[in-house]
Each structure stands twice: as structure tokens, then as C-alpha cells.
Specification:
Blueprint lengths: L1 H9 L11 E4 L7 H12 L4 E6 L4 E2 L20 E2 L3 H12 L4 E7 L3 H10 L6 E5 L7 H9 L3 E5 L23 H10 L3 H11 L3 E2 L6 H8 L8 H8 L13
Parallel strand pairs: 1-2, 2-5, 5-6, 6-7, 7-8
Antiparallel strand pairs: 3-4
């Protein structure tokens, strides 16, 4: 990503300030925050990072007797967790903001209690909490907690994450884009099911980050600001709540 952006900058097609770069601190770096940040900064080679997120509240410990990688395990195959308080790693992330190489910091996959606990000692509040959030799992409690603390919620898997590997998404669960209510609303508003899902989230005041490698779909995902769901239709979508997570990790 960094190489391509640098090519466009050097060619005069874009300026660095026209691109907002977000990257994350992985769970094996909770006690090496500066090292993890520098690794991302060096890999991107873009001068600075706009938003640096703590990817997960839990920390992993690389085990000498198990496997390494993103999900290190113990000899018995279980995940190798490391006891590092979220306040400790967050304090180290706060130090990064003093460096002009990091413009802002946030968290990801934090629940309501973790947010409440973190802000009690934080000198700098997270600007956002990036979590799974969609019509079947609207994160109402977490939304209220974040709003109270002036932390914006960012939704991933808004469309159900159809392109993710089977090991991350339970393929036995309903497909959001095929929900009958959503399809009916798509016909009513002359929009795609994906646009209805994204628009509903935006009307809640939640940030969305849909992923696509299809130029047509990328353009379509951005065309959600020329219409508004009426209250009755918003209510229909709210009634779809199943408190159902789609993403999983089989470890």
C-alpha cells in the first residue's frame, strides 16, 4: 500500500495529506508499542500515520514451545495470552501522539466495560473504537458507552464481510445482503442492498469502512449520501437485531 501511495505522490497525482492512513498495533506488541508502531511506519514509508489503533484488548505472548505468527499458541495448541493491562499499552500509545509521526490513536474490538475502564485513566481518549457492527449485531450498548465518552464507533463487517475466509466467518449464518427486509428496501429506494446497509449505519452516526477490490462496487459504496431512510424503515432495520456475531476465530 505504501509503495503505491508513494508512487502517486511522486507522480504528483495526490498529496500525502489527501490520504488518511490507519494501521494497527497487533496483539504480540502490547508490551512493545513503540516497536510495533515503528514497524508499521517503516513498512508504509509515508512519513506519518493518521490513526493508530490497538487491534485487540487482549495481548498474545510468542511462545518458544508453541507456534508463532499472528496467533501464537502454547505447546498444547491453545492461544498464548499475555497478561498486559489495557491501561499499560494505552499509556505507551499516548506517548506516540507527542511524536508528529502519529496524528491520533484509537482502539478496536473493545467492549463497553473495557472502554469504561480505559477512559478512567486515559490522558488521551481513543478517537474511535473499530468493531464488528451490522444489522444483526448493532452494538447498541457499546454505541451508547462510546457516545457518552465522545468516542466515535467505526463499523467493520457492515455488509457481513462476505469475502472473508471461512475460518473467520460462520458460513451457516444468514447473509446480510440477502435479508428480505433489506432487499425490499433496496427496491423501494432504487439502491443496492449494500447501500441500504451502509446508509443505515451512517444515519446512526457510525463510521463505515466497507472493503472492495471492485472499482464499480467501491464507487457504489460511496453513493449513499443522496438519500435518507425514513423513520419507519429505520425501525424495520432495527427490528432485525439478532445479537448475532458473524465473525469468529477458530483457534
Amino acid at each position: 500500500i505504501g509503495e503505491v501511495i508513494n508512487e502517486y505522490i511522486k507522480a504528483g497525482k495526490i498529496k500525502r495529506e489527501h490520504v488518511f492512513i490507519t494501521t494497527k498495533l497487533w496483539s504480540t506488541f502490547h508490551d512493545k508499542v513503540e516497536e510495533g508502531f515503528k514497524k508499521s511506519l517503516d513498512n508504509l514509508n509515508l512519513g506519518y500515520i493518521d490513526l493508530f489503533l490497538c487491534h485487540n484488548p487482549m495481548a498474545f505472548e510468542v511462545s518458544d514451545t508453541g507456534s508463532g505468527g499472528l496467533f501464537p499458541t502454547k505447546a498444547d495448541g491453545s492461544l498464548a495470552f499475555k497478561n498486559i493491562p489495557i491501561e499499560t499499552s494505552w499509556a505507551d500509545m499516548e506517548k506516540l501522539v507527542a511524536n508528529d509521526k502519529c496524528k491520533s490513536i484509537g482502539v478496536s474490538n473493545y467492549g463497553p466495560k473495557q472502554i469504561e475502564r480505559l477512559v478512567q485513566k486515559a490522558k488521551i481518549k481513543p478517537v474511535t473504537n473499530q468493531v464488528e457492527c451490522h444489522i444483526y449485531y448493532p452494538q447498541n450498548e457499546l454505541y451508547d458507552v462510546c457516545e457518552k465518552q465522545d468516542i466515535k464507533l467505526t463499523s467493520y463487517a457492515t455488509l457481513g464481510s462476505p469475502g472473508r475466509p471461512a475460518s473467520f466467518v460462520d458460513d451457516k449464518l444468514p447473509i446480510l445482503l440477502q435479508d428480505p427486509v433489506i432487499k425490499k428496501l433496496a427496491e423501494k429506494y432504487k439502491k443496492s442492498p449494500g447501500q441500504i446497509l451502509l446508509r443505515q449505519m451512517v444515519q446512526r452516526g457510525i463510521l463505515v469502512i466497507p472493503k472492495s477490490v471492485n472499482p464499480k462496487r467501491i464507487k457504489e459504496n460511496s453513493e449513499i449520501f443522496d438519500f435518507e431512510l425514513i423513520p419507519a424503515d429505520v425501525k424495520q432495520i432495527e427490528n432485525l437485531n439478532k445479537n448475532l456475531k458473524l465473525l469468529k476465530i477458530e483457534r
